[in-house]
Amino acid sequence: MSDPFDSSIRINAGRRKPEGPAVKGDGTRCGGCVTPPYLEVKGQHRCIASEGYGSDIESVGCIEELHLQGLRLGVRIGRSRGVSEQRHVRRFSGQVFAPADALNQDAVILSYLRSYPQSIQVLTEGGSYTINDVSFKTPIRHKHPVETYGFVFQTPRHTFSWIVDTRYFDDLASHYEGDLLIINVVRLNPGAPLDHLALSEARSIIEQIRPRAAILTHFGMTMWRAKPWELAEKLTRETGVTVIAARDGMKFDLAQLKDDKIQALP
Asked: Phi/psi zone of residue 170: left (φ > 0), alpha (ψ -120 to 50 degrees), beta?
């Protein structure tokens, strides 16, 4: 059976709009983010609070998305101005994987939408999940105001991990070993009263895991101002690990993990 990850994954940089409730203070906190990330399709952070009814497609809540070569791991809802609610909800056949607090109190996956996907599976600490030929696990609950879990994806050829929003803690890196590490780096410097990783903490994690390649993503404004592509080049020199700053629409060919030279595709 073919490896569903054999060609490439797609990741966006998590850029947020600088206006509206999606940005607060220095831009590193999304005012609409009352929910943890969960998987859907591409690779960008979108917030329903920051997008008006004029959008052709809006995501449900705040979504961290990972493109899995056409496998849909979530649900997307379409809305358009002036169309009745009965007509502007679009049904998809995918599955949703989300923490319990995305479904319970202050739910972002509203009750009337839950019949649209084939199934909804609740993520838990230490859980293992399978969809078609893809398996992944959520090894540990992160330290974040809402319920969040990172992911370790396993295929016949590769293991790659994704560390989503969390405060740094001592054994974090030990749960995410793999050939490729994707890591949310919201802040340039640690110390703010926000449960997000900073660049120095990401460097520590990279040095502990020592993957074949690491991709930085989900940047806050302090990271953007510091030019993350230059920061990634510096980390590459300092750690000896190929570090790449994600950009919108970027592709990464997993076959490169066997090569000496690793780079993102245009």
From this structure: alpha
Closest CA to 242 of 198, 199, 211: 211
Residue 124 Cα distances to 101, 148, 167, 222, angstroms? 11, 9, 18, 32
Q: Above pLDDT 90, what percent of the chain? A: 44
- Which residues fall within 8 angstroms of residue 113, CB to CB, at 6 or more apart? 60, 75, 77, 89
Amino acid type, 211: P
Domain 8-258: CATH architecture, name and number where available:
4-Layer Sandwich (3.60)
Q: Give kind and range of the element (H or E) at residue 233.
A: helix 228-239
- Check if the beta carbon of residue 18 is closer than 8 Å to that of residue 30: no
What is the residue-averaged pLDDT of the chain? 73
Name the 3-class secondary structure at 232: helix
Put residue 234 in one of left, alpha, beta given phi > 0 → left and psi -120 to 50 → alpha: alpha
Q: What is the pLDDT of residues 195-229, one digit of tens each?
A: 999 999 999 999 999 999 999 999 999 999 999 99
pLDDT digits (tens, 9 = 90+) for 59-107: 333 333 333 333 333 333 333 333 333 444 455 668 888 999 888 877 8
CB 204 within 8 A of CB 176: no
